């Protein structure tokens, strides 16, 4: 597999922007909705690919990877919110049996595990396509992503 | 990194959802439960919830840091990632079980009317 031919500095910034926006999934204090921001970030990432990669097959595979990643992030965010709503409704039900909680949690965990498997597969594919410089460039933005991710609502950091 | 964000979406929030109804609920319990003995029991349970949540947050911070160290390595193996994910899932499952236990303990202390007052059904 060839190293991703995006220029590291530009590509890194693109990916960093993607990460920063993706980390804001769930935040509703901006003009654009999180979903719109996420879509915009991925659209920008996709538009960058043909500008940086000449080979059509390579363009197609990178675009497909971006598509898959976008879908997975969106699915994970939606599943997370659905899980929160389901558990909140169960909790409010005075008569909800313990088995209902256990069943709900089992299903939530199973979904998370499936998405984790997909995330690992995408990550492995990305690792095979990014060169060392690009990988390190993306890593520079780890602290930003970390902070943003921790500020996600509903992660137990005081958000209802 | 997108992997860190995904980690948070998959393992950082869904399980903590069980804790959400308990947040900032103490004043509502104090208002709803007028009988001192039952109120004392309810408050003791809420204190246990607070402790469980604080412990879980501390564990999660550590797990998150460990995850970040792992995820930034380009050469990390699937087995290493899988082991980390399983450890996080196990910690979350233990936290869930504790909160379910405390939820039912609190339910046994509050009357149905008090429960509905403190935890109104979501709209």
Q: How many β-strand runs of chain B? A: 0
Question: Helical segment tally of chain A?
Answer: 6
Q: Which percent range fits the helix content of chain B? A: over 70%
- SSE succession of chain B: HHHHH
Question: What's the rounded overall pLDDT mean of chain A?
Answer: 67
- Ends of chain B: how far apart? 35 Å
Note the quaternary state here. heterodimer
Percent helix among the residues of chain A? over 70%
Largest sheet of chain A: none
| Proportion in β-strands of chain A | under 5%
The poorly predicted ranges of chain A are 1-30, 140-160
Largest β-sheet summary of chain B:
none
Which structural class best describes the helix and strand composition of chain A?
mainly alpha
Percent of sequence in beta strands of chain B: under 5%
SS summary, helix count of chain B: 5
Radius of gyration of chain B: 18 Å
Mean pLDDT of chain B: 85
Instruction: Tell me the total number of β-strands of chain A.
Output: 0
Query: Whole-Å distance between the termini of chain A?
Result: 45 Å
Walk me through this protein's architecture.
Chain A has 6 helices and no strands. The termini of chain A are far apart. In chain A, helix 3 runs antiparallel to helix 4. Chain A is mostly helical. With 123 residues, chain B is mainly α. Chain B has helices at residues 2-12, 26-32, 36-71, 78-109, 112-118. In chain B, helix 1 (2-12) runs antiparallel to helix 3 (36-71) and helix 3 packs antiparallel against helix 4 (78-109). The interface between A and B is large, with 58 and 52 residues.
List keywords for this structure.
A: 160 residues, mainly alpha, 6 helices, B: 123 residues
SSE layout and pairings?
The complex is a heterodimer of chains A (160) and B (123).
Chain A: H1 8-22, H2 34-52, H3 56-92, H4 98-129, H5 132-139, H6 142-150
Chain B: H1 2-12, H2 26-32, H3 36-71, H4 78-109, H5 112-118
Helix pairs in contact in B: 1-3, 3-4
